[in-house]
Amino acid sequence: MSITTERLASLIQRELATIVNLQVKDKSFGYINLTEVKVTKDLSFATIYFTILSDQAEVIERAKKGIEDAKVPIRMELAKKIKNIRKIPDLLFKYDEALAHGNHIDQILKSLK
What we know:
The protein is of the alpha+beta class. It is built from four helices and three strands, in the order αββααβα.
């Protein structure tokens, strides 16, 4: 990533941290934490990785659906906050499985002791 894409990714992550939790209507899965944002070189797509506290598959699917349903209002709010770029990238939300994988490994290590 160049400096421009890194700065934009950081800015998007900072702004989306509050916007996502305000725009998602279903609060049954709790708080959505954004772990990473990657922006393509041509600034047309931003992949946003998120986690929630639960590791149950049905709760994760509800969170994915809630975010997808609120994708348009989230992008509109982001456009209001970020004014110094010409076009807001398309937002692609993906569940970040790294935290769940780390917890699984931690549980395995604890069971070995």
